[in-house]
């Protein structure tokens, strides 16, 4: 991991993300790209009038001053930090910055169970996830430790989940897999679930060594099943796949991945299918 992007709005929750990113940056000798988006009207950016130009310069200077103060933190010492200011708030730009700088991960702050932080209110976190080609880590609180000793990877074990699983496996050594069985059309018997998982592991790992690391759970919704199972196995992090800009994965139909990111007390990381 060489570069980590942290979108910030100078809030407490942004600082949780920044401190999390700092820990991971030190661990991996990575650079931090700290991104702030100014909420300027597009008309101001294209106008040639003196008032509009002065307004834009004022907000840019104000953001630079905030950056200088905000980034003056002990935990950022000895880390290469690059501040980036974008002119207006378009959340697809986070993915564009990531692509431009060849970043490896995006880390964002969130209110957790109370809902997403102000800058990522509503569907904005989902927009970042949807456009991002790289993993997005959502954190809810000040990091105590980020060892991620146990990572819960939630999956329906279809073929399209193989690539996200491999990406997660390459980042984290101790992955526990979760299969959620819910009532209705997608319901599977125990033998059907075990057969599906075995075929998945043969394709993804080439062996069945992780069969004992699969947790089967039944619940009324996939979201509840993921959250309850993650707590039961003592997970430090929840990993979920997403189709990104093509829409949410079938396994996470509707707003499941966003709901998990919102309601989990644990950090959540998403991987593009």
Q: Can you give a write-up of this model?
A:
The protein is α/β, with parallel strands linked by helices. It has helices spanning about 10-30, 40-45, 50-70, 90-100, 125-130, 160-170, 190-205, 220-230, 255-265, and strands at about 5, 30-35, 80-85, 105-110, 135-140, 150-155, 175-180, 215-220, 235-240, 270. The protein folds into 2 domains: about 5-140, HUPs (Rossmann fold); about 150-270, 3-Layer(aba) Sandwich (Rossmann fold). The two termini are about 20 Å apart. Residues about 115-125 and about 245-255 have low confidence and may be disordered.
| Number of separate domains | 2
Overall geometry comes to elongated
- Sheet of most strands: 10 strands, mixed
Q: What is the helical fraction, as a range of percent? A: 25-40%
Radius of gyration: 20 Å
Number of helical regions = 9
Q: So, the CATH homologous superfamily of the largest domain?
A: HUPs
Q: Look at the helices and sheets and give the structural class.
A: alpha/beta
Protein name: Universal stress protein
Pfam family, one: Usp
Domain UspA: 2-140, 222-271
InterPro entries: Rossmann-like_a/b/a_fold, Universal_stress_UspA, UspA
